[in-house]
Amino acid sequence: AAGVIQSPRHLIKEKRETATLKCYPIPRHDTVYWYQQGPGQDPQFLISFYEKMQSDKGSIPDRFSAQQFSDYHSELNMSSLELGDSALYFCASSSVSSYNSPLHFGNGTRLTVT
Amino acid sequence: GQSLEQPSEVTAVEGAIVQINCTYQTSGFYGLSWYQQHDGGAPTFLSYNALDGLEETGRFSSFLSRSDSYGYLLLQELQMKDSASYFCAVRDQGNQGGKLIFGQGTELSVKP
User: Fold this and answer.
1) Cβ partners under 8 Å of residue A94, min gap 6
2) Distance (Å, rounded) from C-alpha B58 to C-alpha B56?
3) Given an 8 Å threshold on Cβ–Cβ distance, is A58 in contact with B50?
4) Do B89 and B33 contact (CB within 8 A), yes or no?
5) pLDDT tens-digit map of B91-111
């Protein structure tokens, strides 16, 4: 079965640079979520989209922005990168026909800021 | 807001049974979910409880008591591959796009 696809898998950037992470949700899933996970921590919610409209926003820095495109893929843009942005970034998708729909996570992008 | 508490780590031996507890505080309740995450991997869905009682899926079972704001994940016939982090999670709203709020995770170590 098709899964959530994220690219790139690994990304190394320097401080103050910009990074773009991409996510391709499972076909026919209408909701996309972005999470950030630091070492030994739980996934922290950043932002979500339902049918290409932003539906919720978490503790996402102003330096970060995201959007969902007409083909349902989503991109997380991160500017003025800081050392503390180094983390695993997960995208997840779900079909929210009912609130018990599980989230399907991609394999994540490991961002390292040097 | 929502908050969840679970033990930080649990150790058990192969073939044993282990229970990972989770207590939660939510402004609204839309079910309790469990996710497994191997080191460096993606969280994967294990189980979901919306109503009180036990849900069984193979070697894994999950229990919910809404009156106690409490649930647990039960893993039976433990295998080495079950060594992973286990997260309980709640949704913050019932409508479309409601995000999952995760507990801090329980690291399970299965010893030979």
Assistant:
1) A29, A30, A31, A33, A101, A102, A103, A104
2) 6
3) no
4) yes
5) 877 666 678 999 999 999 999
Confirm if A16 and A105 have CB atoms less than 8 A apart. no
B97: chain A residues, CB-CB within 8 Å: 31, 48-50, 55-56, 96
Q: Which of B44, B45, B98 sits opposite A99 (nearest CB)?
A: B98
d(CA A113, CA B88): 30
How far from chain centre, in Å, is Cα A106? Answer: 9
Query: What is the dihedral angle through the alpha carbons of A49, A53, A55, A59, rounded to the nearest 10 degrees?
Result: 70
Amino acid letter at A16? Answer: R
Residues A90, B91: C-beta atoms closer than 8 Å: no
CA distance A89 to A60: 12
pLDDT in tens, chain A (114 residues): 789 999 999 999 999 999 999 999 999 898 999 999 999 999 999 999 998 999 889 989 999 999 999 999 999 999 999 999 999 999 999 987 655 788 999 999 999 999
Nearest CA to CA, how far is A17 from chain B (Å)?
24
Write down the number of H helices and E strands in chain A: 0, 11
Residue found under tokens 């959530």 = A4
